[in-house]
Amino acid sequence: LNDTNPRSLILRLCDVLSSLRIHGVVFEDDARSEAVAQILDFISAQTSVPIVGINGGSAIVLTPKEKGSTFLQLGSSTEQQLQVIFEVLEEYDWTAFAVITTLFPGYEEFLDYVEVLTDNSFIGWEHRGVLTLNLTDDPHGTRLRRQLREVSAQIRLLYCSREEAETIFRAAKEAGLTGPGYVWFVIGTNLGGNEELPD
């Protein structure tokens, strides 16, 4: 079911659920759209049918879920990803970092969680600021390259969509910010896929 049109996705799932004796649904898609996860969560809550999202948009972790939902997603939340990244930063003694986000939904919660991790730690984290990017109205990436150069930390935590990540890394490469000495951690529940980001 790779048609991400909400109406057709809901109708097809409801047809399947009403025509067969089903104890649960395992769902995989190639859409990488959070809307798929939201639809599956809604259907699970309304029908009480367990749904397991294993790939694509269905595996984009939602928090919180609908009341009564039995929708399980096999993916890691943004908070879990950040916890692992901060353990890596601590292990390598990389205590100075900057945060870069776009206006992608969830960025405010992401920033809040970075603050929680750094404020409640005995590690002497040196948070060198937040850069929130607005990628609209910059067709040639001139403003983006300038903004990325202004970030003083070599360790960068990036929260954005996959499409935005491709644009940001292209601009970072053009600005000379992807070679030796720069470490980028890309965080987000929607970045899965088999394709690699630009070098």
TrEMBL record:
Coiled coil: none annotated. Gene3D superfamilies: 3.40.50.2300. Keywords: Membrane, Transmembrane, Transmembrane helix. Its main location: membrane. The lineage of its organism: Eukaryota, Metazoa, Chordata, Craniata, Vertebrata. One of its GO terms (cellular component) is membrane. Residues 33-186 form the Receptor ligand binding region domain. Transmembrane segments: none annotated. This is NMDE4 protein. It comes from Rhynochetos jubatus. It is found in: Membrane.
